[in-house]
Amino acid sequence: MMAQYLEIKAANPDALLFYRMGDFYEMFFDDAVAAAEALDIALTKRGKHDGDEIPMCGVPHHAAEGYFLTLIRKGFRVAVCEQMETPAEAKKRGYKAVVRREVVRLVTPGTLTEDSLLDARRHNFLAAFSQVRDEAALAWADISTGALNVMVLPRVRLGAELARLAPSELLVAEGSEGGLGEIVSDMGVPLTSVSRGAFDSTSAEKRVAGLFDAASLDAFGSFTRPEIGALGAIVDYLEITQKGKLPLLRPPHRETLGGTMQIDMATRRNLELTQALSGGRAGSLLATVDRTVTSAGARLLERRISSPALSLDPIHARLDAVSYFSEHAPQSRDLREILKRVPDLDRALSRLSLDRGGPRDLASIRNGLIQATELAERGLPDAPHLLTDALNALTGHDALVDLLDAALVADPPLLARDGGFIAPEYDEALDEARKLRDEGRGIIAGMQAEFAELTGIQSLKIKHNNVLGYFVETTAKHADAMMSPPLSETFIHRQTTANQVRFTTVELSDLETRILNAGNTALEIEKCLYDTLKGAVLDASAQISTASRALAELDVQAAFADLATSENWARPVVDDSHDFAITGGRHPVVEAALRQQGGAPFVANDCDLSRSGDAHIWLLTGPNMAGKSTFLRQNALIALLAQVGSFVPADAAKIGLVSQLFSRVGASDDLARGRSTFMVEMVETAAILNQADDRAVVILDEIGRGTATYDGLSIAWATLEHLHEVNKSRALFATHYHEMTALAGKLDGVDNATVSVKEWDGEIIFLHDVKRGAADRSYGVQVAQLAGLPPSVVERARSVLEMLEKNERDGGETKALIDDLPLFAATPAPAPKPSAPSPAVERLQSMNPDDLTPREALELLYELKGLAQE
């Protein structure tokens, strides 16, 4: 057995080998040590090899999926080695023959299909990057849904596309890992090296065309050599990991670079589009706007948020659909109630194609198509073409629905081997086998009663196990009577245990043979019928996939309408101009968070960066904590939502198509790559200035704050001038360098704006109101006081600030002033002196409100006012 294990392990050196031993998967040697640590399970020993004890650990086969997920998340790959025959079949080859085993699957991050291993509301992409000389391409597939896409992609754009797709695994040719390591590490995408031959375009074209039973790829479009190579690498990898059982993939869809809004990795992170900065989905834009009720709809919504459209036709079509559902609330509610009952058709199809499915997946297909047919029959009167096209794609499944409805029970089991999923009266031979099997059980019960009466032992039972089959069992105290004449002539002793004695009879053995044959016959018939039904479903896979996409489209549009209606969002005007005018804009995530916390309402603000207006760049000043970053982000998110095809959180919005969205807000050290906070800031700023065009929207926050004052001011000054003169982008530029407000008078396209605050009794109140004009100060000391700095530190800061400002007004030198400043005295601040009690407070404490008449209460109010003024 160990020789077999070592041979199979040698063929899979890069994966943990899950070696099937009965009801367990067992691991040995270094695999056992690594798995025991990763899974936090016991490490034991089993036998010896070359004189050393063999480390061993194991997990139950029925719970293996959970262990797969843990190992995949920790960076391991798993080779699943199954028994391909029973021990009895192995013994036919010889007494010491080892059960034949084979690796039936390699479990990797990008090839998962099980529901328990996947997030139902997210795609799980396997990607491949191919480069031929100066040309390159990226292909990606989700084998759990059948999606297959490819695009020409310059190497410099790889990071941005990986950020958009967030693949679970990236395939690259051997030897090219080094050049891609930095890009991939930024995304945390597992990198898998495959042979260079997998990317060869000549063999790859035959491989991909063969997947679709086509002579060439010409029927699916014109592809470059790198594109064909990337597609071929994915198909080759799937053949290796799935051991020849290829999933159902749709024909490759060619995307074009520039077909969607360009958003780089830093911007996606800063704007928290699909994942919050703290990690996880909660707190992201996607989590806030997601009101879809189907898994496919949720995945489509994530794709839309990650890839806003850059063409007016799809944007207007989607907005028309949201408007229709908003204006037809009853139809929208009914549609969403039906959609809630739609299972995940795509993933059920994928599992069936890979032989990882079961009767429950067939039932999912049936139930989903029934709901699709109901939606099509209900219709949507006078709906726009996007919705009518979706409804038309839901028809034409009657024959398959009738077949599955007649064949399957309402709630079938998970696995075909469990049986019991074919409905009664569907197959005559199955009904006959079931009848014999079920009547056999009744006969067993009758035979038990007869044996009990014959022996006079009422506790006598007829039981069954896999070793003895059916047997008569009684307690030890009754055994002597059954082994003595005349009962011994009927009952044949089989086994004695600690408390029980077991017998059989000729009649019972004959009946067992008939019952077992009937049960096995019924199960074999069901398995054959399962294969027939699965074949019928797979034959209609293209139509089912089309219906699934249509259901997802309906779900997304109805969800956006529900969001717009409940949150009072407005339909944006999206056109081909350079306008950017938002009235009463709000930040969708912050507004939702304030509502959940029961806090103050969100303060809405206007923003106008239209090229046709006074200024297409706003220089925003104001104190920290006043809401500058929120204002910057909300306008970027409103533009993104508009081009996704959603209504927006504003009273009104007019957005000229945004080709690129850039955000440089906040920064942190990147110590692993030797980058300081300032270096990260400069790298991101450089990327914006080198790429942004006149249709871009740029938001920049505190450029130059990571270095010395004059260095930072000069960099911020030059950056703003470059945006205005060279990039000509629409931009929001937040800064604490008040000297920059002078640029508004020198550059025609720049205007000042500030976030209002109110100072009261030495403290500041944030009004969160953005208005034209410049801030005269930053209120840093007041913010420090709000943060909880010790009172002595705050007072010392006030005095130093006053001296510095006075010195600047008087034209003095800073160094001379510093030399004259007394050092900070680190002594506790004196305790405040107790103040005399207020006459107004004493008067209030002396009266009882319940004893006052309305007239007396009014007089008291005037009296208190007089006391307060004294």
UniProtKB/TrEMBL annotation:
SMART domains: MUTSac, MUTSd. Keywords: ATP-binding, DNA damage, DNA repair, DNA-binding, Nucleotide-binding. Pfam families: MutS_I (PF01624), MutS_II (PF05188), MutS_III (PF05192), MutS_IV (PF05190), MutS_V (PF00488). Residues 825-852 are annotated as: Disordered. The keyword ATP-binding applies. ATP binds at G622, P623, N624, M625, A626, G627, K628, S629. Residues 696-712 form the DNA mismatch repair proteins mutS family domain. InterPro entries: DNA_mismatch_repair_MutS, DNA_mismatch_repair_MutS-lik_N, DNA_mismatch_repair_MutS/MSH, DNA_mismatch_repair_MutS_C, DNA_mismatch_repair_MutS_clamp, DNA_mismatch_repair_MutS_core, DNA_mismatch_repair_MutS_N, DNA_mismatch_repair_MutS_sf. Belongs to the DNA mismatch repair MutS family. This protein is involved in the repair of mismatches in DNA. It is possible that it carries out the mismatch recognition step. This protein has a weak ATPase activity. HAMAP family: MutS. PANTHER family: DNA MISMATCH REPAIR PROTEIN MSH1, MITOCHONDRIAL (PTHR11361:SF34), DNA MISMATCH REPAIR PROTEIN MUTS FAMILY MEMBER (PTHR11361). This is DNA mismatch repair protein MutS. It comes from Cognatishimia coralii. The gene is mutS.
